[in-house]
Amino acid sequence: MKKYIISLSLVLVFVFYILMKQSGTSTPSTPPIAVSNPASTATPVEISPQTAMPGGPHGGSSGMPMSTNMTRYKDGQYTGIVADAYYGNVQVEALVQSGKIADVQFLAYPNDRGTSVQINTIAMPRLKSEAIQAQNANVDIVSGATQTSEAFVQSLASALQQAAS
């Protein structure tokens, strides 16, 4: 029940934000947000300008070092930790070929609710693509999928830590 109330509150905030934007009313500067439309088959999700920081997306201290673009990884498949994303767990596996991240696969992700499936269908490819492009776990948070993004960063960072050692 508590999760339902929180989800409903978030949806109401999102709707209010959209209505304010459409009416031209000035609102404080905030990152883009996602709005779930039950009549739609896809949920728009935008990447926020907030960048993940070492130790986690908000600069916290997770104890896992973030890798840099200069890191060459050992070839192989590396499974990251299972990270809590509030609505479920996220776990990824990194495939390293020729010293670079070649692929990132989701082994687990929140998928037992319709909204989670909609959001993660959009967020997961973006997270994966950005990690491969950056060649590290320092990826932008996907707005509307913050917990999944944070858990992705944690799991991928732990996998890449194994590949770097």
Please write out the topology.
Blueprint: H1 2-23, E1 47-51, E2 76-79, E3 83-84, E4 89-97, E5 100-108, H2 114-134, E6 140-142, H3 146-164
Antiparallel strand pairs: 1-6, 2-4, 3-4, 4-5
* Spatial gap, N to C terminus: 44 Å
Q: Would you tell me the structural class of the helices and strands?
A: alpha+beta
Give the DSSP E fraction (strand runs of 2 or more residues).
15-25%
- How many domains would you count in the coordinates? 2
Shape: elongated
Level-1 CATH class name of the largest domain: Alpha Beta
CATH architecture verdict of the largest domain: Alpha-Beta Complex
Name the poorly predicted regions. 25-68
SS element count, helices: 3
Question: What does this molecule look like?
Answer:
There is one protein chain. Helix content is 38%, strand content 19%. 35% of the residues are buried. The strands form 2 sheets. Strands 2, 3, 4 and 5 form a 4-stranded antiparallel β-sheet that branches. A two-stranded antiparallel ribbon has the order 1-6. Residues 25-68 have low confidence and may be disordered. The termini are far apart. It is built from 3 helices and 6 strands. It has 2 domains: 1-30; 34-164, Sufe protein. Chain: A. It has 165 residues and is of the alpha+beta class. The chain is elongated, with a radius of gyration of 17 Å. A hairpin with a 4-residue loop joins strand 3 and strand 4 (89-97).
